[in-house]
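tool_call: predict_structure(chain=1)
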Amino acid sequence: MIELDVFYFHWLSTMTAPLANLRPGMRLIGNVETLALARVAIEKFNDEAEPLTRGFPRAADKARGLLAAINAVLPPVGSPLLPDLSSKILTESEVQRIHAFHSAIFPTLRDESMHSYVVKFEDQRCLSSYTLVEKIESCFPPHCWDIIDKSAKREFEECGRCLSMERYTASGFHALRGVECVIRQYILALTSSLPRKRDWGSYIDVLQQSGADTSAVVVLDNIRTLERNPLMHPEDWLDVDDAVGIFNISTTAVVRLAGGIKKTQKRNVTVHDVTSGVP
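tool_result:
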């Protein structure tokens, strides 16, 4: 996936349009601003790592040609080849070269754009697309996000991206996988090991037997019965309300699990201090 600034294309057109007015015999001193602004606009196409270059490689090739043509007439500041601006006259070959590359960029860009998908993400109910794609951690209390491990964070990051792209069933899967990661983390904090059976029923039994937070166990049992088990069947697909609902109840479960993990960690530290004789 490539992130594009849509406004850039308008800006590129505005900054390079005056190049069409260049004529042989013009003084360079009177066209420095035109050439310099066009150079600034097309330099974004000159970096191989830029999304623009990756997304529109043929247009980028034309842009690099235009950049070279401009630099040949007006070298960048600091270049030892910088001409005497007051006396330099634009030649016919220089102007023709600039015009040729300039006129080639936009038809090429139009052709490449016709075969590219540009997607505008919409908010999903109360969840903004920015939050879902870039800042999913803001959906959790800071102390909770700090406690859960990297595997759970990765699942919720994927959940947010899927939800923003309207892949609702995939979003539900990732949300529940994220919860399961935190369940396992809580079990490890309580028992220092994981049960052999890897299913939520076994996990919930272990949590209950180990004195886990009751509110967390109740939420998990509801999720297991009402959400997770039905979603395992291939005929079950989620819509936006299903996906948002699963995400919301999953965040609730994670907050309660994280609270239980924090309490267990504190208790373990206290027990260690007592048994080791630390005052």
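agent: The two ends are 55 Å apart (CA to CA). Proceeding to next step.
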